[in-house]
Amino acid sequence: MEHLSQKQIEDYSQNRLSAAGLLATSDHLAECETCRARVDVDAAFFAVHEEVFDGNVGAHLTSEQTAEYVDKNLSGDELQFMTDHLSSCEQCAFAVDDLRAFRNEIAPSLDREYGPAHDVAVARESWWRRFGSLFGNAPVPAFGAAALAIIALLLVGWAIWRTSKEEKRDVVVVAPTPSLEPAPSVAPSVQVQPEPAIVAQLNDGTGVLSLDQQGRLSGAEDLPPAYQELMRKALTSQRIERSSQLQGLTRPPSSLMGANEEREFSVLEPAGVVLINDRPAFRWSRLEGATSYVVEVYDEQFKRVLVSPSIATLSWTATQPLPRGQVYSWQVKAVKDGEEVTVPRPPAPQAKFRVIDQGRLNEILAAEQAYGSSHLTLALLYARAGLLDEAERQLRLLQMANPKSEIVRKLLRQLR
Description:
It is a single chain. This protein is of the alpha+beta class. The chain contains 16 helices and twelve strands. Strands 5, 7, 8, 10, 11 and 12 form a six-stranded mixed sheet that branches. The longest helix has 28 residues, at about 140-170.
């Protein structure tokens, strides 16, 4: 029989072997008396004992405290201390469970008498002390060493078995049932594609709008497809297209027009806009020394369709509705020192405006009823109809819900 090497004996004595190596060495020592004599059994036993029970003395329970707790010999503050410590220290609680199981396993052998009879007080001693007394009171000295070696091997083997059992407790191996059918081909693995990045996200009413890199719009599922497309274009380009309804309503002022003349007396509004109201309110600036003003409104054929009475105020609201869907121009005549002064006058551009047609008005009224909580939807519909003031009000509300959004700031700047 080949004996253990010196390194194997040292590793065994200092508990440095793996689980497989420890079992193999233990089996050899059980059969080989020569190698067993070379092993420092006491050192091996107490090294195992220190690692299992007494490691980290400063932070954990000693073996004596553990044994007293298992034997239920503690009371009062000491028992309370032990209970508190075990409730928060998993390592010590594990040691107590192991020691209690080990005690229950070897308890029958401790009931046999190996020495003189003990009185009642000795019989009530800790089983751990009785376990140690086996080696001090054995009738044959050689039995103490042999028994200690066997117990140490049992202790180490039992600890390894318990650890292996804990690791494998949840592993269940089920043998496959033989099948006569050919094995199916392995399906190719499916690679999960990452979600496209979000390029735009806004709080809009009661929901959140988001647009990803692939142009997918979320949060607008209740909108008609045409409105979703309108919203998708605005979020992608971060621009609002200029309405065709504004075409021809404005032109740059002529360089021949004097700045002082415009500041002194000029029309204010409406000019260059689309109106939702078919009874516009007209406003102009004061002409110093003027005694009265008259407003005149013309259609696209320069036919006068409205005229105000002579008034001294700087505003006037039409008393009858203007036909919708048409472009109008207007001017103000001021009477000063018995003479008439008219603005705007060439080379200044005409003051033009459009009254929204009935079809677009009906669409907007329906959208306000159905999607009134979506500020972006209404802003885009107003802007498409040329209603810039209404569109700006909706974008301001959208900005309040998204104060840090650069997209909303760009839409507001571009609107004008």
